[in-house]
Amino acid sequence: MVDYAIRQIVYVTMLIIQVSGDMHSASADLASIFQMEQQVNNVLSELVSQTETKLEIIRQYLKEYEQSVINETMDDKNEFMERLAGNPIHAYRLMKRLYFDWQLIEKEIKTDNWQSTLIKLEEVRNNEKFPKEEDFLGATSALVRLQDTYELNITELVRGNLRGRQTHAELTALDCLFMGKHAFDEGAYARAVEWLEESYILAGLENNQTIRQDHIMEVIQQAIDKHDEALHEAQQRMAVLSDTKSFRLPLKEKPAVLQRNEMIRSRKYDKDDAAKFNALCRGESLLSEEILGQLKCWYETHKEPYLFLMPIKIEQNSIRPAIYTFHDVLNDLEIETIKELATPLLARAKVLAKQAGSKTTVSNVRTSKTAWLEDELHPMLHRISQRIALVTGLKVNSSFDEAEILQVANYGIGGHYSPHHDYLMKGKTDEELGKMNARELATGDRIATFMFYLNDVERGGSTAFPRAGVAVKPVKGGAAFWYNLKRNGQGDPDTLHGACPVLLGHKWVSNKWIRETAQSFNRPCLLDPDE
């Protein structure tokens, strides 16, 4: 009965009955899940305490019995029992144990603490935020993504070192085995071998406590065989596999650790947007010294009386395309108000679907949760829109379709947004445009993006522009600004940008996308048709 109860508790604690989960995609949810785990810990701690109380009562009974008979041991069992029975103190303690003490033991044994524990755990697990399978896989994918983007040393990573910041979080050999199997299932055989080899090393250091080395070795050999087989097939097809999926030589010829180091040292960016994006996320500079020398910072008032006493602090990040950071455009009270308004409205971020007829869909290219805030929701939101108008010189009243309402995004574990363009209509066919809402077509495309940073990010989280060769680091209260369209109305392909994965900490941003039609006289065309 006890074994069955234990199995039930483990089952209730680990069982995942819902197939849809996205608690990993926002740090706001992760904080509440840690609080939820504290509830689980409290329930299980209470069960342990109650069980130890029961065991202590039984141990005390056994100890008293042993103390009574230890000095009366004799070879003849009958003679031994007669001697005990002939001693009035032994007789008293015998009656006391079997009458008084036994009642206490019987009461404790009959008391069922397992069922009440099951009920309490069920209550926690039925919470809609209890992690699902998707969350576990999402957290696993996030670690692999962080490893790929930031070229993290796997040995340092599993020991809690995140790009020079040592934390108390560590992974076990079993954790690394899970990571390796996940990478294997995703076809990332190169990463799978690396994780599995690290699992083997940790298992030895742990004295096979979480997983046995002989078991890991079997899985490693399977991953190596699969890697070499996939590499051979790709070479036969003249195909090129990503560095995550494959090394450049069979693993039977050269070990994984040597090949990974060689790949890092010999990397070239050329016109590879993905490689440039990752390099910018790591903090590498892609601009020449000449261009860096032309960038500047200044104060600006636009001759607006509102800005005379508090001019805009402008930092130029890129000349072409023009990308700027406006510093100190939000105060702490405004930031906290935005986050408080957005938190109960957060939902998994969606992107435009590729399938014809579809509007938006959840996608792995973006792992965050978003909320949309209308200016009418709070007087402060209207004031912020007015401030954006003063800073940019553009019309941003969402009631007149001059801009979209404010979007707030919260990024969770390894939260990122793959490189993309913000304009929605440029490059679309007439058929695709015909399926868009008439009102949206009338407002025009997203001419510009104004992105507030609502917090400092401890590691990672920059906004990287691979074709411009720059990355904007999140600074609390600041904002990034750029034009998505050229003055001739065409999309600017060099504004390709993405959100670097959050390596440590969390990230909140807020976007105001400004629409094209209302800006005809605020940003007129130039004589040069290519501009």
What does this structure look like?
It contains 17 helices and 19 strands. The chain is an alpha+beta fold. It has two domains: 187 residues, Alpha Horseshoe (Serine Threonine Protein Phosphatase 5, Tetratricopeptide repeat); 218 residues, Jelly Rolls, CATH 2.60.120.620. The strands form five sheets. Strands 3-4-5-16-12-19-10-9-6 form a nine-stranded antiparallel β-sheet, covered by helices on one side. 32% of the residues are buried. About 3% of the residues have low confidence.
Task: Give me the secondary-structure topology.
Layout: H1 2-14, H2 27-69, H3 77-85, H4 88-110, H5 113-125, H6 133-150, H7 154-158, E1 161-162, E2 165-166, H8 173-185, H9 189-205, H10 213-236, H11 256-265, H12 273-281, H13 289-294, E3 297-300, E4 312-318, E5 323-327, H14 332-342, E6 347-348, E7 350-352, E8 360-362, E9 369-373, H15 379-392, E10 406-411, E11 417-420, H16 430-434, H17 438-443, E12 446-453, E13 459-460, E14 463-465, E15 470-472, E16 479-483, E17 497-499, E18 502-504, E19 507-515
Antiparallel strand pairs: 1-2, 3-4, 4-5, 5-16, 6-9, 7-8, 9-10, 10-19, 11-17, 12-16, 12-19, 13-18, 14-15, 14-17
Please state the CA-atom Rg, rounded to the nearest Å. 32 Å
Structural class estimated from helices and strands: alpha+beta
Mean pLDDT, all residues: 87
If helices are DSSP runs of H or I spanning 4 or more residues, what is the number of helices? Answer: 17
Major sheet size, sense and barrel closure: 9 strands, antiparallel
CATH superfamily of the largest domain: q2cbj1_9rhob like domain
Please give the order of strands in the largest beta sheet: 3-4-5-16-12-19-10-9-6
Strand-residue proportion: 5-15%
CATH topology of the largest domain: Jelly Rolls
Distance between the termini: 78 Å
What is the domain total for the residues?
A: 2
Inertia-based shape: elongated
Second CATH tier, the architecture of the largest domain: Sandwich
